[in-house]
Write a structure and sequence with these properties.
alpha/beta, TIM Barrel, binds 6-O-phosphono-beta-D-galactopyranose, globular, 17 helices, 8-stranded parallel beta barrel
Length: 483
């Protein structure tokens, strides 16, 4: 069965990992700008890369040498985007996911008017994408809350941030609404409980009360902000669509021991909390109870329940990299995955970073989500981070990447055959960029190689990998030719 003609193919990026130019045009600092590259830390040790203190932030801000802060330079997409977009067009992209840096428009998050230079930059970017027939899919918030708000009041823990975010979103819809018809609110919205600073601008040290409570307070504020800007989008740009964005952490019971199944079920309850709120329109009762039993109370205010119920999203988007298992045994061996530590699955292989590769898990994710919500789905992140080698003749042979995508596309196509309504697929990432978790560039995801190392050395030149030509063929055949 062929894929629908309207199926979208492309790639996904995030401002904080590609743009660079962190001080240009009046842009204010965001939490990503103080993410330090730690060359001696084990890249598998997720927690160490996310440790943050006020002293650490201030020291990073005072550090004039940007070398150890790779997200400040990204891959210089800010200046090089015309060439990069041309390469994406050459691959046949019909869609590109990008994000807007909040602090490029509102440097501290609190200004009343946006910076003209920031507005002009994104207008030029989206216009160029349209010229190349690449539809923008735009995330409003991808791991870059304003640092000023984080330092002032732990950003999303404070309810007032909703208003500030609405102002930012209103600017985006008004200024770019004629160019952008597909929007996402918060990248991996569930992630705030796993990396509170990166997602929510929450600094553990300055939180009053428990961090657990602060995270769920902030998550609730993001839900309210997302519902509120969804309503706003419908007023300003009625022909546009809004999606939510989840981390699909597909979890299997480690064994058929009922204890393991129950542990998995408990984990899934919180996994689906965000989609239940954003697609279903309200908090699920059992998840609320599970939080209550942990001492966490959701800070509902008048009107919140109605706002969430009336402003659910149009489509569900998600990232999928790996699956994991869950066990009742506290000593079970764990391995990292995307922003988590899961129990190791002996049936799966993994990358150097410990992420377990499971193409069938992608089909399971698609079927699960479609079955639960019957809303159109969009895969907005999926890909393989590996070390690549640039050969002397300027080639990159990456059969492992082709193999990874082929296996995932087969499962994706099977899910569509089984009846899932899938709007499109955009890979993470079409070009090498700075890793979100470890700030390395040597964990390479792209079809396009960037000549730059972890310390920012290199020409920055772009090279087409073997997978570039393979993906080009897949897109040209609309998924029919995976050979
Ligand atoms: C997701 C993020 C992305 C991205 C990806 C890969 O969690 O949304 O920003 O980076 O994971 O993760 P990493 O960069 O840590 O390999």
């Amino acid at each position: 069965m062929p894929l629908p003609e309207t199926f979208r193919w492309g790639g996904a990026l995030a401002a904080n990992q590609v743009e660079g130019a962190w001080r240009e045009g009046g842009r204010g600092p965001a939490v990503c700008d103080v993410a330090t590259y730690k060359p001696h830390a084990d890249p598998k040790d997720y927690a160490v890369h996310h440790q943050v203190t006020v002293e650490g932030i201030n020291a990073a801000l005072a550090d004039q040498n940007d070398q150890m802060y790779p997200k400040r330079r990204g891959i210089d997409f800010y200046h090089r985007y015309p060439g990069d977009l041309a390469l994406f067009a050459e691959m046949g992209f019909t869609t590109l996911r990008v994000s807007i840096s909040w602090t490029r428009l509102f440097p501290t998050g609190e200004e009343v008017e946006p910076l003209a230079e920031g507005v002009a930059y994104y207008k030029a970017l989206f216009t160029e994408m349209r010229r190349l027939n690449i539809e923008p899919l735009v995330t409003l918030s991808h791991y870059d809350p304003p640092l000023a708000l984080a330092l002032k009041n732990n950003c999303w823990v404070e309810r007032r941030t909703i208003e500030l975010f609405e102002r930012f979103a209103r600017t985006c819809f008004t200024e770019f609404g004629h160019l952008v018809k597909l929007w996402l609110t918060f990248n991996e919205i569930d992630g705030i409980t796993r990396h509170p600073f990166t997602s929510g601008g929450i600094i553990d040290q300055t939180v009053e009360g428990s961090l657990d409570q602060a995270c769920y307070t902030a998550l609730h504020h993001q839900f309210i902000a997302a519902a509120s800007v969804t309503r706003l989008l419908r007023e300003i740009s009625p022909d546009a669509q809004m999606g939510c964005m989840l981390t699909m952490l597909v979890t299997y019971p480690n064994t058929c021991r009922p204890e393991d199944v129950a542990a998995t079920q408990a984990k899934e309850r919180l996994l689906y909390l965000c989609s239940d709120v954003q697609a279903g329109g309200g908090y699920p009762r059992l998840a609320l109870r599970a939080l209550e039993l942990r001492g966490v109370k959701i800070p509902f205010e008048d009107g919140d329940v109605e706002l969430l119920a009336e402003n659910t999203i149009d489509f569900i988007s998600f990232s999928y990299y790996n699956s994991m298992t869950e066990s009742a045994d506290p000593n079970a061996e764990r391995t990292p995955g995307n922003t988590v530590l899961g129990v190791k699955n002996p049936f799966l292989g993994s990358t150097e970073w410990g992420w377990q590769i499971d193409p069938i898990g992608l089909r399971i994710a698609l079927i699960d989500l479609y079955d639960r919500y019957a809303k159109p789905l969009f895969i907005v992140e999926n890909g393989l981070g590996m070390r690549d080698e640039l050969t002397e003749d300027g080639r990159i042979h990456d059969p492992y990447r082709i193999e990874y995508f082929r296996a995932h596309f087969q499962q994706m196509i099977q899910a569509i055959e089984e009846g899932v309504d899938l709007m499109g697929y955009v890979s993470w990432a079409p070009i090498d960029l700075i890793s979100s978790s470890s700030s390395q560039i040597s964990k390479r995801y792209g079809f396009i190689y960037v000549d730059q190392d972890d310390l920012g050395r290199g020409s920055g030149k772009r090279y087409r990998k073997d997978s570039f030509f393979w993906y080009q063929k897949v897109i040209a055949s609309n998924g029919a030719d995976l050979s």
